[in-house]
Amino acid sequence: MLKTSPSSLIPPVRQLLRHARRFLVAALALALLILPERTLIEMPTRLDDVRARDFIQVATRNTPTTFYRGRQGPTGFEYELARDFADYLGVSLSMDSEHNIESLTQSVLNDQADLAAATLPLDLSEQDLRFSRPILELQAMVVYRRGMHPPKELKDLVGKRIGVIKGAGTSLVLREVQQDIPELSWKETGELEVADLLQRIEEDKLDAAVVYAHQFKLNRLFFPNVENGFDVGDPLTLAWAFPAHGDISLLTAANDFLETRRQDGTLDQLVERYFGHDDYLEYVGARTFIRQARDRLPRYIDTFKEAARETGIDWKLLAATGYQESHWQPKATSPTGVRGLMMLTNVTAREMKIANRLDPIQSIDGGSRYLVSIKGRLPDEIKEPDRTWMTLAAYNVGLGHLFDARRIVKMKGGDPNRWKDVREALPLLQNREWYQKVRYGYARGGEPVIYVRNIRRYYEILNYVYRSQQQFYQLDERPITDDEGDSNPFDTVPPIL
Fold this sequence. Notes:
By secondary structure, the chain is an alpha/beta fold. It folds into three domains: 46-133 and 243-275, Periplasmic binding protein-like II (D-Maltodextrin-Binding Protein, domain 2, 3-Layer(aba) Sandwich); 140-234 and 487-493, D-Maltodextrin-Binding Protein, domain 2, CATH 3.40.190; 283-466, Lysozyme. 46% of the residues lie in helices and 13% in strands. The chain is built from 20 helices and 14 strands. The chain has helices at 10-34, 46-53, 77-89, 101-109, 170-178, 194-202, 213-219, 249-263, 266-275, 283-295, 301-311, 315-326, 346-351, 360-376, 386-397, 399-411, 419-425, 432-435, 446-466, 471-476; strands at 55-59, 68-70, 73-75, 92-96, 115-121, 129-131, 136-138, 140-145, 162-165, 186-189, 208-212, 226-231, 236-243, 491-493. Strands 1, 4, 5, 6, 7 and 13 form a six-stranded mixed β-sheet that branches. The chain has a six-stranded mixed β-sheet with strand order 12-8-11-9-10-14, with helices on both faces. The longest helix has 25 residues, at 10-34. The chain is globular. Residues 1-10 and 468-486 have low confidence and may be disordered.
């Protein structure tokens, strides 16, 4: 018998093992190819989860800049953008607005919400959250109580009562400034919103606050005792917040959506609609309007509401137009001969079959129907809300001049169907270089711009006030107290010693 040593067996064993490995690899590959597709299980992504349940859950705050329930249902900048995102994904939208800044993060981290959309600053130092691409610029600014010596810089507020929203980014801005101004101190809270801070300034419970500029723009008409101060720090950016754990499929979809809306102009239009009208009524004008809305408007509310039922135009917009025209004075007469509460010309009165322009019922009826007539003569391509703003401009300056302004927009390469572009073109009708190029010639084109701006402001105030009758009291006759009592919502950030 041929004997072999153990060492002589090693090469054949190695070869056998090598062939065995090759066989196993080939067999595994073949098995993967012939297995049914359903056995190749992939873990669902966050985006898959959203689509599977057929809705996206968004955490937000109940504020004028984010989400609130208006007369026609839910509205607000963040709401409209989130709703558009839900449509983009092909799912429905569920918004939970029962949050403050502090609870928003926890809601996202605990997977109780898919994202947070609530005027959150993009904060790259936040380890637990991922943020979308920038949506809107956030500029922190100081606002202060009218009657104070106007502060020019934060050093002027040392020793003053300053309020900020904790976790909103404005407190972080102050902490950075405090490194250079160590004696600076302030109060911060996660329980209140911007409107609450502004109310406390009006009531002399705070001397100043640091808020974002767009938040102040949206709220300042309701707090005419609060004055615009100065910018603080570098601009931040508003973004949506997503959990850092898990995959980024939903975040990627949100970024794709935001980029699409930026490129097609939808995002700019939404920003313009909510925050673009940044001029505001001066103090006396705002106060006077609030007072007249309390004392004079109630005589005509039923008439405006009846006109609204007949025309489909919000009665508060009709009332705002009436105030801009005559301050709700039925006997008003202008030097040019327009008369009545809605200041109708003789030509318009005849067209609307109004016998007595000084009769407030007839005037409101005629003016309301005339607005409908103007709106119906605008091109179909003009969509809301631009259609309404152009209708109001034409009520003031005439359809011919409005069409001329649209022609100028076309000459300049803009969009004649957007109020923003037409608004910029209307003042050019006062410029010989431009009015010679259009059909109806010269017009005081700056006036309809101011006209529409004021009506929008009055309309905003009426919307705000009539959501609750109690808010008349809040706006005009609030008691002033210094004691927050046991419900003090503020934590004090002391100076750096």
